[in-house]
Write a structure and sequence with these properties.
Blueprint (H helix, E strand, L loop, with lengths): L1 H69 L2 H11 L3 H22 L4 E6 L4 E6 L10 H7 L7 E2 L3 E2 L5 E10 L5 E10 L1 H9 L7 E6 L2 E3 L12 E7 L6 E7 L1 H51 L13 H67 L4 H27 L8 E3 L1 H11 L1 H7 L3 E6 L6 E3 L1 H19 L9 E8 L3 E8 L6 H4 L19 H11 L3 E6 L5 E8 L3 H5 L17 E5 L3 H13 L3 E5 L2 H10 L4 E5 L7 H9 L8 E6 L5 H10 L2 E4 L4 H14 L1
Parallel strand pairs: 12-14, 18-19, 18-20, 20-21, 21-22
Antiparallel strand pairs: 1-2, 1-6, 3-5, 4-5, 5-6, 7-8, 7-10, 9-10, 11-13, 14-15, 15-17, 16-17
Helix pairs in contact: 1-6, 2-3, 6-7, 7-8, 7-15, 9-11, 11-13, 15-19, 16-17
């Protein structure tokens, strides 16, 4: 390849170059001068237009920033509170506005100072450097306050003693009645504009500056007018009454042409001789990178995505080598991203499998729990001896505890029957300590310090779920302290406190702490710092899920060797929200509706028996079946006032029962009540939502079931 390429280049380039150089050197000078000057003039005008557009963009962005900040609802919140004499709230909004302006100032980096003044010119809040001013309202405020709503004002360029220059943008803020409520002022540093102007280079000594009504900016802009032949181009700015001026001496562009003309003849002869050697070197410089590129491509094709070639510093080969290395880097990044995506997909599949497992466990537990609760209630209602009644009450109470465990499982699956009520975090902390009292004192031998603020405000949530979170945090603290031995012993601290808007609960231990690399991942599912077999990595994930469902947040602070502190933050509710959670008046007892004919369908014999006994006790005539096929026959042939049916059964489903009843005329259609323990099944929930049929979730109280049946029988 090198030999072929060498001769091809020599034979195609050398004769042509000899002829071109000989003719062009003597003929092109006049035309070149004319064309170069025209091209330079056009380019200078184009440069002026582009530069003016760029500076226009900078200035329009300032106007956009001005309108964005002036329209923030924080300003309206502030002056509304001031109008209503809510000074504490106004002060809070003023601080929030100042933080907002500070974040905006830091993000933009363009404004040495941002201020908001009220209608009297008094400064409400400001961020940035202090700008000396005369007593009374600043001139910017005076110029802007009389503007109509939606208008804005910009000052002339203000030159500072230190050489810096600035503009002031101002916009009046009006309320809904078009009454002036203040003025927002942006102090914009023109340093970026001056930098852009200084970066505009035309030739060696060319300059660019802005021509304003007040003079030139920068003040040293423009060339010495005593010099002959100055090339000049101007472009107006649309955002300001300014013009951008670009100037350059003509001799910087025309002078080299003369030298080229004189040296052209000499270089023509030398160039032809050197061209042959250059062609040979060129062939070598091309073939070496191409060979390296081909070898690297083969390595990447074999799977070595870390392979790179040595970058050529310039020219097309440099672009090619850089593009090749960039392609290889993107391929490697794509492979890493694919690996991370695969890991996330596996993690997602784990969570999905756990959710399905929880759904199955909840379904399987709800039916026997319903039977246990039902039989216990029915037996207590039959008038058993006091000792037996106490035992049955224990059975019923512990069955309800099991139901709460199922509900806690449902929290992880994001479909819990969350109970909203008033929650005292102090009481939740004490309840958690009572549950873990034996472990803390006997097993862990830890000292418990309760720093619980008295009279702490109540929050809204599920008390049992909050206790579950505290129990989990205390358990984690105990396990952490078990991994280290301290002379002062194990120390567990529970602390509660409050601020103006939130209530806090913290669990602290003096265990070994957490390594910095692990702190950012402690709330991830399946991530654990415990030894294999001692943790699932779901505890803190569930805790965060519960707290976020309550509108709060959870955070962790830890130092290696100095313990760990986990803080739960919950929003403080309004008084009106607490009033809505006042205990409702007891529901009006509905009298039984005896003499009605009812069909009970449930493939769980115990549940079917309990529901039948409850209805029979009300004086109704009850048919019972646990066979889905038999149930469809009874529904099709019988005349019932109420049909009670499970949703998920063998041989037939609750949907089949509903479809049979829906085909009847409305005056012949019995009422229907569904009972189900499969409350996580999307198909079941979709069916109940679509049909809007009455239903009870297992396990339920016998009295709850009787009340629902009586209500439907009355409606029928």
């Amino acid at each position: 390849m090198p030999q072929t390429l060498r001769w091809k280049l020599l034979l195609s380039i050398l004769p042509l170059v000899a002829l071109v150089i000989t003719a062009v050197v003597w003929m092109q000078y006049g035309l070149s001068r004319k064309q170069i000057l025209a091209a330079i003039d056009k380019e200078v005008h184009s440069l002026a237009d582009r530069s003016a557009a760029g500076i226009d963009d900078l200035l329009r962005q300032r106007q956009h920033d001005l309108f964005t900040l002036a329209e923030t609802p924080l300003i309206a919140d502030y002056y509304h509170n001031v109008d209503f004499q809510l000074l504490d709230e106004a002060a809070a909004y003023r601080l929030e506005l100042k933080r907002y302006l500070l974040r905006f100032s830091r993000r933009s980096g363009a404004y040495p100072r941002i201020s908001y003044l009220d209608a009297s010119g008094r400064e409400v809040c400001s961020v940035g450097r202090v700008v000396p001013s005369r007593p009374g309202p600043p001139p910017v405020f005076t110029a802007a306050k009389g503007l109509a709503p939606g208008s804005w004002w910009v000052s002339p360029i203000d030159l500072l003693p230190d050489g810096a220059a600035r503009l002031h943008y101002a916009k009046p803020v009006h309320d809904e009645t078009r009454q002036l409520k203040g003025v927002l002022i942006l102090c914009y540093d023109l340093g970026p504009v001056a930098t852009r102007l200084s970066e505009l280079k035309v030739g060696k000594t060319g300059k660019a500056f802005l021509r304003t009504p007040a003079g030139a900016f920068p003040t040293e802009g423009g060339l010495d007018r005593s010099r002959p032949g100055i090339l000049q181009a101007e472009a107006p700015l649309t955002s300001m009454p300014w013009r951008l001026v670009v100037e350059a001496p003509l001799d910087e562009f025309v002078g080299p042409l003369k030298r080229i003309r004189d040296a052209g003849t000499l270089f023509a002869c030398l160039g032809i001789g050197l061209l042959a050697g250059i062609v040979l070197l060129l062939v070598a410089s091309i073939t070496r990178p191409l060979a390296a590129l081909a070898a690297a491509a083969r390595r990447i094709g074999e799977g070595d995505l870390t392979r790179r070639i040595e970058a050529v510093p310039h020219g097309e080969l440099g672009v090619l080598s850089a593009g090749f290395n960039e392609m290889a880097g993107k391929l490697e990044s794509s492979r890493q991203a694919a690996s991370q995506l695969q890991a996330q997909l596996i993690q997602s599949e784990k969570l999905s499998a756990i959710g399905q497992l929880i759904s199955s466990v909840a379904h399987e537990l709800n039916n026997p729990l319903g039977a246990v609760c039902g039989y216990a209630q029915m037996s207590m209602a039959d008038g058993v001896p006091p000792a037996v009644r106490r035992d049955l009450e224990h059975v019923h109470r512990n069955a309800l505890r099991c139901r709460k465990v199922v509900d806690n499982l449902l929290v992880f699956a994001r479909r819990s029957r969350q109970e909203r009520g008033k929650v005292d975090l102090n009481q939740a902390a004490r309840s958690a300590l009572e549950l873990l009292e034996y472990r803390i004192k006997k097993t862990e031998e830890a000292v418990v310090v309760q720093e619980l603020q008295e009279g702490i405000p109540l929050v809204i949530g599920d008390f049992q779920q909050v206790v579950q979170v505290v129990v989990n945090l205390i358990s984690n603290a105990c396990e952490a302290m078990a991994q280290t031995a301290r002379q002062e012993g194990k120390r567990l601290v529970l602390r509660t406190w409050t601020d103006a808007r939130r209530v806090f609960l913290a669990v602290e231990d003096n265990g070994p702490g957490i390594a910095p690399a692990a702190r950012a991942r402690v709330f991830e599912p399946f991530f654990t710092t415990k030894e294999p077999g001692r943790g699932t990595g779901l505890g803190l994930t569930i805790c965060r899920q519960i707290i976020e469902q309550h509108g709060g947040s959870i955070s962790l602070e830890a130092e290696e060797g100095r313990g760990t502190s986990v803080t739960v933050s919950l929003p403080m509710p309004k008084e009106s929200e607490l009033k809505t959670l006042e205990a409702p008046a007891p529901a009006m007892e509905l009298a039984p509706v005896p003499g009605k004919k009812v069909l009970v369908i449930d493939d769980e014999k115990d549940m079917a028996d309990i529901m039948a006994r409850a209805l029979t006790a009300d004086g109704d005539q009850v048919d019972v079946t646990t066979d889905g096929s038999r149930a469809l026959v009874l529904v099709r042939e019988g005349a019932y006032d109420l049909v009670v049916s499970d949703v998920q059964m063998e041989k037939a489903k609750g949907e089949d029962v509903y479809d049979l009843l829906a085909r009847r005329r409305p005056d012949q259609r019995p009422a229907i009540l569904f009972v189900t323990g499969d409350i996580l099944n999307p198909r079941v929930l979709g069916f109940l939502h679509r049909t809007k049929a009455a239903y009870l979730a297992k396990p339920f109280d016998v009295s709850e079931f009787q009340l629902a049946a009586r209500r439907l029988l009355r409606q029928a």
